[in-house]
Amino acid sequence: MCTLCSMRAVAAAAVIPLALSQVAAMGNDTKVRPAHCAGSWYPGNPTTLAKQVDDLLARASPPSISGKPIALISPHAGYRYSAPVAAAGYRCLQGHTYKRVIVLAFSHRNAARYHGVDVPSDLTAYKTPLGEVPIDREVCDQLLKNSLFTSNPGIDQGEHSLELQLPLLQRVVKDFQLVPLLVGRMSTEDYAQAAKSIGPLLDRDTLLVASTDFTHFGSQFGYTPFTDELPKRLQELGDQAAAPLLKCDYDGFVGHLDKTGDTICGRGPVTLLLRTLSLRGGATGVRTAFDTSGRMTNKWNNSVTYQSIVFTPPQGTMDMPQRNRLLTLARQTVTAYLNGKKLPEVDPGTLSPLLRADGACFVTLQNHGRLRGCIGNMRADRPLYNAVIGNAVSACLDNRFVNNPVTAAELDQLDIEISYLTPMKRIQSTDEIIIGRHGLLMAVGPRRGVLLPQVAYERGWTRQEFLAQTCRKAGLPPDAWKRSEAEIYSFEAEVFGEHE
């Protein structure tokens, strides 16, 4: 429960009859969700509301971020408490355009009553004092074809977790279509399934927002893990929660919840956001603001923590011309080899220093998503461009497909992908492994197994599933990673392909 859920429950409840009367006045055919929380959780007057949001955005001073934001975690208490923190995150969106915003929220009253993700089946817009926000009906209808996405009419009656994000979006993003999703009961497998449906929607013009407040501390919330130095302890607990978020570490965040019991009300939306981003190769998070209601009221016996975190795509070391040069070289090599022609010759003087330097990489061949070959070198023992040529030939000869080798007839259907690898790093704890970022090399005695990062995140594996599958790749039992003699190495891969 958020601060105002308890501190202003009466005021919040008072707005529900008004909202219902608005619905009745509009008639039974209305498809617009009214502004249930206007006038209590945030100003109901449009001029006052616009001025408050604009003033908060102007005063916000978040740290600088690199790249266009792709996702945001934002608080949702009454604007008096959480809006300054929320504004610091939304300030980072200024100067960028989005045509669609997917908001992951939940129902404080009803989240435990339904399984999966709620999607409105007939709404055409959400209303706030600043106007109507149109719903992307095409996307909502598409999601409803997945059995995990269902419509539960009235589930968001009086709910604020999604609605409170909208005025900020209206003042910053302005013209966009909304995909409103309310997360209910979800298993580990459910999060992966839902993420696989949401992930393809995240194009350059789409923003993903998760709505949550953080620690709800005190007897009022049934959570008192400490009793002394409350400001310091709440800051520390907030930092612990943020640490896996900044790394886009799904397993780390779930581990934090299991270990601490941290009362993060929007854990469902945040978990789904992390899983969705990890299935797309991860992201880099930056915390833009932190505060507590205890600091604002100087009443620490019951306090709610607010944080905003902005996510941008992971930064690579190769620019687009370098990527394109290697992909072209790989395509020329595969084409020449399969047609029995001479392999391409390259003048190193025409290449950038990065492509001439020793490098490790994998070349992957797929036919409409079906693997046809994947071979690489783990050690940077030759110039990168030479590694691409050699691995492209080897991918055509992948012995897993010896009875059905790739042929020249498939050239037009083949998609080529290159994974440029960072140096190996032996890990001391499996907690260091981040799905979406790391690939693994498992070594037990003479047996070795390697899986690239995208193998794990494209399949929606958890950390333990990734470890087990890497063991299997090495011909070992799935729990061999637990052995004292097991050596586990992680690496990162900059993955790019022709499909991009």
3D architecture notes:
Strands 2, 3, 4, 7, 8, 9, 10, 11 and 12 form a nine-stranded mixed β-sheet that branches. Strands 13, 14, 15, 16, 17, 18 and 19 form a seven-stranded antiparallel β-sheet that branches. A three-stranded mixed β-sheet has the order 1-5-6, covered by helices on one side. It folds into three domains: 3-312, 3-Layer(aba) Sandwich (Protocatechuate 4,5-dioxygenase, Chain B); 320-421, 2-Layer Sandwich (Glycoprotein, Type 4 Pilin), CATH 3.30.700.20; 425-497, Hypothetical protein ph0010, domain 2 (Dna Ligase, domain 1), CATH 3.30.1490. It has 500 residues and is of the alpha+beta class. The two termini are 42 Å apart. Helix content is 35%, strand content 22%. A hairpin with a 2-residue loop joins strand 13 and strand 14 (370-377). Mean pLDDT is 92; it is low at 1-29.
The shape, in one word, is globular
CATH fold title of the largest domain: Protocatechuate 4,5-dioxygenase, Chain B
What portion of residues is helical? 25-40%
Q: In percent, how much strand structure appears in the residues?
A: 15-25%
Overall pLDDT metric: 92
Largest β sheet strand count, sense and barrel closure = 9 strands, mixed
